[in-house]
Amino acid sequence: MHNKLQELTDKLYNEGLSKGKQEGEELLAKAKVQAEDIITKAQAEAERIIAAAQKQAEEIKTKTASDVKMAASQSIAATKKDIETLIVGKMTGEAVKKALSSADFVKELIKAVAEKFRRENGLIYKPTDIVVSNGAKHSLVNAFMAVCNPGDEVIYTTPCFVSYPAEITMAHGVPVPVPTFEKDELSCDGQSPDDRYIVFNADLSLDD
Question: Taking all residues of the chain, what is their mean pLDDT, rounded to a whole number?
Fold first, then answer.
């Protein structure tokens, strides 16, 4: 009787031990699977965070470079404007206005220009042949305004400065472009009875 009881106890113990071991192994296997799944998800999340951070850093870098470039451009433009304002202010100051309004000063200036052409270019001009202006375009506008009547045709050779047609039209003239070509040595043809004035344009770029 005692032996049978012992055998039964040992059997129950062994069965319980075996079952507990099996359950423990199952729990361990399940824990390993869950751990691997957690690690995989963590790695994926870490990669996503790193990629997002890299993208954000690149966007910040690009935006910063753009902002710096824009700020530099604006600073340069502002500096140029300040210099321009300073120069214009000096050129249009009271002393300059007073000098340019003096007939004697203008006469001396024209004489100096005539002397420059004689000394440096071997060209002889009388003071009455010289006009002092803000540049060639200014001189042409003055000339067209002085001599053009409505409907007068003004021939000008092309290639030319883009301002010629507008200057002629502003003086109520009719711009008549005459194309010229290097292969023809820039010769021009095509005058008509309505033509009143001819503007010869020297394209210095052909010397390059």
Answer: 78
